[in-house]
Amino acid sequence: MNLRLIGIGAGVLIILSLPLAGAIAGPDFAGRDDGKGGGLLSTLGLAEPSRGSSPAPSARSEAPVGLERPGPAEQPRTDSRCGPELTAPYGVEVQTCVLVSEGRTWGRSYYRNTSGHALDAVLTTMGPAGRTVQIRCAVGAGDEPGLCETPREDSVGDPEGYSAVAEFAVPDDEGKLLLRSGSNSPAP
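Now predict its structure.
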């Protein structure tokens, strides 16, 4: 065999084994630096502890009684009731929903405009006792997904008493309606 090839192979093997040797030696998380601790098994908590030794207080993972660990705040639940996804032959895709969260109700319409023309959208949320909230949204000519949303209002009565309707039209003198989308669920 060629000695040069054997030398190169041995060098590559040594270089590739260095990260493994470092992982096996491992850091000394327990604070013991006597040369006996550490190692991959100790780091993973799989090694048997020495007699009479206990982990240092900083290595314990349980939280003191009565204290919670910090973390992200829990988000409030949002319930939605959405109508079917509709597509107009002119290149508009829409789905309209009624959303309810923390005692507030609002309408939202998800859309995608692939028509190549800017459009106008009017979103109306209707509630019990003739309550109505309406907003006009400009829909750009790009085909990126977007949404139109009414302001959130305090809920009155049963959430089932709310509905939302979105109408997409060409913004000219005639206002040709391209698509009407509602929050009513499709019949099963």
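Residues 79-182 form a domain with the Immunoglobulin-like fold (CATH 2.60.40).
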